[in-house]
Amino acid sequence: VVVHPRRESLNGCWILDRHRGTPSMRQYLETMGVDELTIQAHEKGETERETYHTIDISPDQKIRIVKRSRVNNDIVVELELGKELVTLLPPGNREKKTLATSMDNGQTTLQLKSSLLTVNGLASVMDIKQLIQEEHNTVLMQELTITNATTLQTHKTVRYFYPYTQTPPHLEDQEMADVNAAAATAAAATAAKK
After folding, report:
1. How far apart are CA 44 and CA 33, in angstroms?
2. 177 burial type by CB count under 10 A (0-12 exposed, 13-18 middle, 19+ buried)
């Protein structure tokens, strides 16, 4: 049994457990009407790189989720509990509506309800993130349910994440960019002195 550190809230970086639940997004993508070649590329990416979700829920109920995988490189979702967010997605400025709710200010449960226009018509997505204390571990369970309003297809994907205790990958990249910028500034200052 692998033991991971305990957490008391959803805050922090989480890494997908590929051996529990249904980690593949195939049926979710099929319900959205995504073509087979794109689904295969997504599956290949899922096996080649880890999937991370970094969650930050502030005391003033602002939520920031960074999703990192080979396919989705740093998708950032910023919401406020109880306030609907409307964003426009390419191509064609398709409207996506998202509402975040929680019974405990996002400490152990978070529900993200979205509606968006897909290639198969209107879809609604319920993304429930729940902190679960097991005998030896804390895990984040994600229940991702998609319903396609046009085809009436519904699919639920259940994925499990465990705490990731190193620097989140999106912050590692920022740290490296900061180091490179500092080195470039120092090099420019040295060159200017000559």
Report:
1. 18
2. exposed
pLDDT of 185 over the 70 cut: no
Residue appearing with tokens 């989140």: 168
Tokens coding 121: 């018509």
> What's the chain's length in residues?
194
- Show the tokens assigned to 38: 């794109």
Q: Which pTM does this prediction carry? A: 0.82
Q: What would the DSSP string read from start to end of 48-105?
A: HS--EEEEEE-TTSEEEEEEE-SSS-SEEEEEETTB-EEEEETTTTEEEEEEEE-SST
- Collect all residues with Cβ–Cβ distance below 8 Å to 55 and sequence separation of at least 6: 10, 11, 12, 14, 63, 64, 65, 110, 129
- Distances 101 to 63, 79, 129, 193 between C-alpha atoms, Å: 11, 10, 11, 56
For 41-74, what is each residue's pLDDT tens digit? 888 887 888 899 999 999 999 999 999 986 767 7
Over residues 160-171, mean pLDDT: 89
Which of 76, 78, 79, 57 has the alpha carbon at shortest distance from 68?
Answer: 76
pLDDT at 99: 97
What is the tens place of the pLDDT at every residue in 118-149?
A: 777 889 999 999 999 999 899 999 999 999 88
Say whether 7 sits in a helix, a strand or coil: coil
